[in-house]
TrEMBL record:
Organism expressing this protein natively: Sphingobacterium zeae
Tree of life domain: Bacteria
Protein name, UniProt field: Radical SAM additional 4Fe4S-binding SPASM domain-containing protein
InterPro entries: 4Fe4S-binding_SPASM_dom (IPR023885), Aldolase_TIM (IPR013785), rSAM_sf (IPR058240)
Coiled-coil region: none
Length: 431
């Protein structure tokens, strides 16, 4: 047996009555399980010296994928897992030509675009053919629109069609929206929630734009105050706070905390880099804000969990459609270089689906990882990250590593302390 290469560890001193022991927290990026052992036990495991170790501990370490059999190629296992076919499909309807689908690594200037006249009909029949032909069971649709009122009729027509098709064919349908919060008034929200069945809203608060941020906060608080949500409606708003000052972020968290919105909001933090700040400092700010939000009662995931793919661009079951009906394997492609666009264009919703090209450059990322072994191949965070933003990489900007790369050990510590204080059973401790 040997230690898996996909683990993260950090040390902690644990005081029990008069005795203080040094402990190692081990997190498996494959199973997302945490095991805490004494430092000397960890040393033994690292040296593959299992003599005299508790058998229950060894079984637990194996079950958690922290210990693996010698000769196992974990990357192959990761790659094979990703070949499992899914029975779901995700469509990103992008009327603004930028991505911001979560990684925040590839935002571009937004351009408002008008869909083509036959956009609604073409996309409705494309969705119907895809869902029925492939016998799919789940359909996720994400809208990316600055001002939803500009496209409300388009959104309602497409949503009504989706609801009809999914209802008739027993397919689960879920929809979310990425928009500018200043346009999301109570009236607009009611239409989107009731007619388009949009249950999740991703909004970026840019602290540098004070006026827009204040309007957005006012809109969200007024929706949360007045809209008749049911308990099962779950968390509604995912807010990304973009700032270069930590106090601005604390102030925003405080506003939502005083309004007692903890069960409807989660936060992401995006600290802006200037010439004086290092990536480590940005990552420190992020963890401080994460901790602050948790202290205020918001539900935040501290540790990243396993992803099977880096992002939608590499997923055979994810597509992005632009205002012209072009289908891409990346949410931000329309503004990239002609060569990158061509390598990742799937086709058009009006084309016969038989001429669509599914083997695009980004979708072949797993093959590229296995055959050319770029730096991500040997990174212990690969199961949590998948390989970052491929567009950024392809455009030669950077690797696009997520911020958790720079604060993952702090996250592990915060997660451990948090779970320990709430007597959470997810952590297995061998003292
Ligand atoms: S993008 Fe960065 S963090 Fe992600 S796998 Fe590659 S090297 Fe690791
Ligand atoms: S490669 Fe992925 S993260 Fe990057 S822009 Fe495309 S969809 Fe977004």
């Amino acid at each position: 047996m040997k230690l898996s290469k996909y683990i993260i560890t950090t040390s902690i001193e644990d005081a029990k009555e008069t005795v203080t022991s040094k402990m190692t927290i081990i997190y498996s990026c494959l199973s997302n399980q945490t095991i805490v052992v004494r430092d000397e036990v960890f040393q033994k495991i690292t040296n593959e010296d299992f003599y005299n170790l508790d058998e229950r501990l060894i079984t637990e370490l194996q079950n958690s994928r922290i210990l693996i059999q010698n000769g196992n190629d974990e990357f192959v296992e990761l790659y094979d897992y990703d070949k499992v076919t899914n029975d779901n499909i995700s469509l990103f309807v992008n009327l603004i030509e930028s991505c911001r689908s979560g990684c925040n690594s590839c935002s571009k200037n937004n351009t408002i675009s008008r869909p083509k006249n036959d956009f609604v009909n073409s996309i409705n029949s494309y969705i119907e053919i895809e869902l029925i032909k492939k016998n799919l069971k789940t359909f996720f649709l994400t809208w990316k629109i600055d001002d939803p009122t500009e496209f409300i009729e388009t959104m309602i027509s497409i949503s009504e069609s989706n609801l009809r098709i999914t209802d008739m064919n027993d397919i689960y349908y879920a929809s979310s929206l990425i928009c500018e919060g200043e346009f999301l008034t109570e009236k607009v929200f009611a239409m989107l929630f009731n007619l388009c069945m949009i249950k999740k809203y991703h909004i970026t608060l840019k602290c540098s734009n004070y006026e827009s941020t204040e309007i957005t906060i006012k809109n969200i608080l007024s929706i949360l105050d007045n809209f008749p949500f049911r308990p099962q409606d779950g968390i509604i708003f995912e807010l990304t706070i973009k700032s270069d000052k930590i106090n601005d972020v604390f102030n925003i968290i405080d506003k939502f905390s005083h309004a007692e919105t903890q069960n409807r909001i989660t936060f992401k933090f995006d600290f802006l880099k200037n010439n004086d700040t290092s990536k480590d400092e940005l990552a420190e700010n992020e963890i401080e804000c994460l901790f602050y939000a948790i202290e205020k009662g918001f539900i935040q995931s501290i540790l990243p969990t396993r992803v099977n793919l880096p992002c939608a661009a590499t997923d055979q079951n994810s597509l992005s459609v632009d205002k012209n009906g072009n289908l891409f394997s990346c949410n931000a492609l329309p503004l990239s270089t002609p060569n990158i666009i061509e390598n990742n264009l799937i086709g058009n919703v009006s084309d016969d689906v038989r001429i669509h090209v599914h083997s695009t450059k980004f979708r072949n990322w797993m093959l590229e990882l296995r055959e050319n072994k770029p730096i991500c191949y040997s990174c212990n965070l690969l199961p949590l990250c998948g390989g970052g933003c491929l567009l950024k990489r392809e455009e030669g900007k950077s690797l696009g590593c997520p911020t958790f790369k720079y604060n993952i050990e702090d996250r592990l510590l915060v997660s451990y302390l948090n779970q320990k204080s709430s007597l959470n059973e997810c952590i297995v401790s061998y003292y």
